[in-house]
Every structure is written in structure tokens, then in C-alpha cells.
Amino acid sequence: MELALSAAPAHLREEAAVWVMAEDGYALGREGSNGFACIVNRDDPRSIKPTCFDPEGAETMVPRIELVGRMLLDGASMDEIGERLESAFASGEFIRPRRAGVAYMLSRHNRPWDSGAGRLGRFPPHVMIYAPDVTNEDIGIDHQVLRGTPGLPFVGYEGPHGFIILVDDNLPSGEGDLSSCPAWIVE
Questions:
Q1: Domain coordinates in residue numbering, the chain
Q2: What secondary structure does DSSP assign to the chain, as a single string?
């Protein structure tokens, strides 16, 4: 729960709902009263992505994350998960965000899987703004520009569940700032 809550701004943490991974998928670990929902997104079995969604994302994004978590625990491949998500959006089972909003990923412990390096990577604290079906081309960004000018916004997850990502200051994680987390997350 501490890791999930580390994604949210401090003033939202106390009243946010918290989802935790259980044996058969995500379960509500704590009810919330402010509409925000914090969860450690596992969009790859090796990734650790603490995220706190506003009320719109709690309704439209958390159900997708729950499905991915359940499918990962059942041993589904990433290709199978991608096909199931595509089908769920096409059928209307899942809907894209209906308005602009934010997903906070302010934790200094974002550990995405880096498939190129074959290991867990690091990604700095950031804020994501819902941007369904917006592309990097739409906002004038390409990978060469990003490499030359770090800190520019870019689109992550192009498609119905897309975000424009705004990156934080890129300061390193501090040892011991999440005392209940294993060392391999915070080192």
C-alpha cells in the first residue's frame, strides 16, 4: 500500500482508495473517500509502476489494470493481453477516458521493464494527462527530439488509453524513503 500511495501528491494520499495485488488479482485494500485510486500497475510481469488515478481514471483505467493483472497471474502472454484489451475497447467493455484528467506517478520508485536492456529500468516521477488517440506526431514529438531535449512532454500508450506524459526533475531515489519496500525496489 505504501508503494501505491507514493504515486500520489501527499495531500491526496490519506483519502485515496488503494488497490493491492492478491493471489487471484487486484483487490481493494482500502476504501477511499476522495475519488482517487492508487495502484501498483503491473503492465508487464516485471514492471512496478505506482500510479494514482483521478476519479475519471479510477473508473476508466483501473478496470483495465485489474484485467491485465488477473491475466498475468493466469499466465497469459503479453500478446494475449494486448488482443484481449483491443477486443474489450472495441466491444465497449472498456471505455476511454471521457474527459481530461491526470494520473499521478510521483513515486521515485517507478521500475518499468526495459526490454532492450533485459532488466528493470527507472523512470522519474511524472504526471500523465489523459489523451485518448493522440499521437506523438500530433504534438510534434519524435524519439530523436526527445533524446536531444529531455523533459519535453510525449505520448505514452498511443491509442484509446493514451496519455501525455510530463516528466519531473529526475532526482534519484533515496534509500530508506519507503521503509516497507524491499531494497531492490528502492536501490
A1: 2-186
A2: -HHHHTTS-HHHHTT-EEEEEETTEEEEEE--SSS-EEEEE-SSTT-BEEEEE-HHHHHHTHHHHHHHHHHHHTT--HHHHHHHHHHHHHHTSS---SS--EEEE--S-BB-EETTTTEE--B--EEEEE-TT--TGGGT--HHHHHHSTT--EEES-STT-EEEEE---PPP-TTSSTTS-HHHH-
